[in-house]
Amino acid sequence: MASDSVEVTARCRETTDPFTIRFEDRGDGWAATDATAIAGAGDGGADDGRRIQGKFRSGAAYDGCPDCGTMMFFRCGGCGHLGCYDGSDAVVCPWCEGRTTIRGDIEELEGVDRGDGDGGRLSKTGDVSGLSKG
Ligand SMILES: [Zn+2]
Ligand SMILES: [Zn+2]
After folding, report:
1. Into how many domains does the chain fold?
2. Nearest-ligand number for the alpha carbon of 10
3. Are 20 and 45 in contact (CB under 8 A)?
4. Residue 120 CA to its chain's centroid (Å)
5. Which ligand sits nearest to residue 98's alpha carbon?
6. Is 88 contained in some domain?
7. 2 CA → ligand 2 middle, Å
8. What digits encode the pLDDT tens for the residues 24-83?
9. How far is the CA of 88 from the centre of ligand 1 (A)?
């Protein structure tokens, strides 16, 4: 009964500083259990590139973004990275600076082309819509 866990790099929307969110496999989905600020340049992250699927939510022990303290997170539809999320309808991605409208739930991370999730409320996925430059 070893519980699987994966670390995914995210960034704070306010400071754009990177941090790591640890997700634990809860059988029916993944729960964020910890967020750790990445000091300095970082070491690349051991689990980068691993693809995990399912429902994503904030676990009871999750203490939020290390920088601003928001408890939720979103996945950018443009670049696929995670950022902290305060519940707004639209956010600016701290990775690609694209404006992202929040809709739907995160069903996978690290870019897997598959969608069969249902339910889950806390974690939102974002899609870049209506890119208007200038
Ligand atoms: Zn933050
Ligand atoms: Zn992005």
Report:
1. 1
2. 1
3. yes
4. 14
5. 2
6. yes
7. 33
8. 998 888 999 999 998 765 554 444 567 888 888 888 899 999 999 999 999 988 898 999
9. 13
